[in-house]
Task: structure prediction
Amino acid sequence: MSLKSELIHFSKLCCSHGFVAATDGNISVRTRENYILTTATEVCKRKVTLKDLVKVDFSGKIIESRKKPSTELKLHEFIYRSREDINAVVHTHPKFSSVFASAGITLDKPVFPEIYLKLGKIPPVKYATPSKDEVPVSISKSVNGHNAILFADHGLVKYGKTL
Result:
């Protein structure tokens, strides 16, 4: 399966499982040529097609697409720059994670053993306005050593070698 096909598949999967609603969330992959392929902004993940994918370089310059990249692109760029072992970033708003984040309840303890055993600690990070430079600053201490972070009053970010 191509990276574009995977991105479309997992976008729809996130929506069908209720991890995002409407135009929430964003997903990206690092290409072999070291570009970022991401979902466009303001696109329903249930309806993502090839025309809804945006290829950008690491300065945010659009290489391929007529659409704009996700407003969370700085988040994705920072994770890829910080972790060469990471090739996929998924930012969602799952109900329970979002409730935990809004209530200030952290997932850095084994609250759900299955999640803790699979992912380890999911550190909380302070809220940062999407698309702003404060996003990389807010996650800078948590990206290394973890494969997921929980944004206060926002949502969950998971990253790994593949989607």
Notes: Strands lie at 26-30, 36-39, 53-56, 62-64, 88-92, 124-125, 148-151, 156-160. The longest strand covers residues 26-30.
